[in-house]
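COMPLEX REQUEST
Ligand: uracil
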Amino acid sequence: MERLDKIIANRGIASRREVKELVRQGRVLVDGVPAAAPDMKISPETAAITVDGVPVCGERYLYLLLHKPAGVLTATEDKRQPTVLDLVPEPWRRRGLAPVGRLDKDTEGLLLLTDDGELTHRLLSPKYHVDKVYYARVEGTPDAGDAAAFAAGLQLDDGLQCLPARLEPLGPGECLVTLREGKFHQVKRMLAARGKPVLYLKRLAMGPLQLEAELMPGQCRLLTDQELMALRSTCGL
Ligand code: URA
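STATUS: Structure written out below.
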């Protein structure tokens, strides 16, 4: 975290004294909101800072972790149904954000939104194998046989050969599933292939990102610097 006036002064846009005046006049925005004070501490990696509407930090990307609720489409616009972008606060909505991967309409949980195309591409590429962890409620009781079948790499009815995956039984009607790929309805199809149709699905983690209990369905927050660094390093950046 760095002081706002230092970030702006270091880029040669104004002296620290001038920044103080610009902030007082409401001409400095941080993530679309007038800066509260010249000495406020912010992250130059993730904050969008503008002076008179001009970006200070050059091409900075935005990384939002959303707790997607059920009933919302993983899309940026739809004529009839609410999308995940509708849940993003106004100043961030016009940044060209896109979801990294897709959760079904009835699936809840962790969804990353960003305007960083390179990171998105890598996170979705099979080359980097980013683990996604899901909690599933199912019909029946997942068991060691299901875990072994997942570990061996399931073949689905339509011939799709899945990569080896992890299934941890949690008791009657519950399990955790960890996948390194993200084919259409993959968790549901894999569990259905084992005779355990999914009743409820929630993504808990993606690589180093975890969905914390405090982030309520429908809420989003910025990634921390540590999360961003960890995420970038999982895909070779
Ligand atoms: N697998 C599914 O079946 N659905 C999702 O939303 C995510 C993974």
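REMARKS: Residues 225-234 form the longest helix (10 residues). The chain has three domains: 2-55, 63-125+208-234, 131-206.
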